[in-house]
């Protein structure tokens, strides 16, 4: 028990675990940026501490606070990517299907399904670049800077695509909810 590695390997309290305990509520608030589901927050918190403690067994962590929050961000992003993949799969599965029902007892559930289908259709109707930016921003939670770097475009272009995607989705859903036939433009972002 002459150093921290030995103490950590023997299961004694580690500096990283002490920082985790002291900052656990702050960590949970941080994870709320990625999801509001309390079960998901709990799972991500547990996954974070498990990974941090495993890493500490392998090497000394010099900045535990920064390390814990870095791991938490990675865990949250992986979780969002996993959920995003299932949303995108759902969008593809639902493409072309309509949810219409005259059963009044399912009215609220039906409305939710119809609105979700309209949203999926709205996202699917976006031009390719606009759609990528919109999904990376709204589904994956990436910053404008991260999206710009990932797609090789400027941050101002990212801002324009994100705003245009939001405007188009809102317009599409508003018009569809009024029963209008919505034509989908084939080309890129239109100038208003």
Keywords for this entry:
8 helices, single chain, Rna Polymerase Sigma Factor, Chain: A, Arc Repressor Mutant, subunit A, 70% helix, 2 domains, 192 residues, disordered C terminus, elongated, mainly alpha, 0% strand
Number of domains: 2
Helix coverage percent: over 70%
Distance from N terminus to C terminus (CA atoms, Å) equals: 69 Å
Radius of gyration: 22 Å
Mean pLDDT: 80
Q: Specify the overall morphology.
A: elongated
- Report the order of strands and helices: HHHHHHHH
CATH superfamily of the largest domain: Winged helix-like DNA-binding domain superfamily/Winged helix DNA-binding domain
- CATH class label of the largest domain: Mainly Alpha
Beta-strand portion reads under 5%
**Strand segment count:** 0
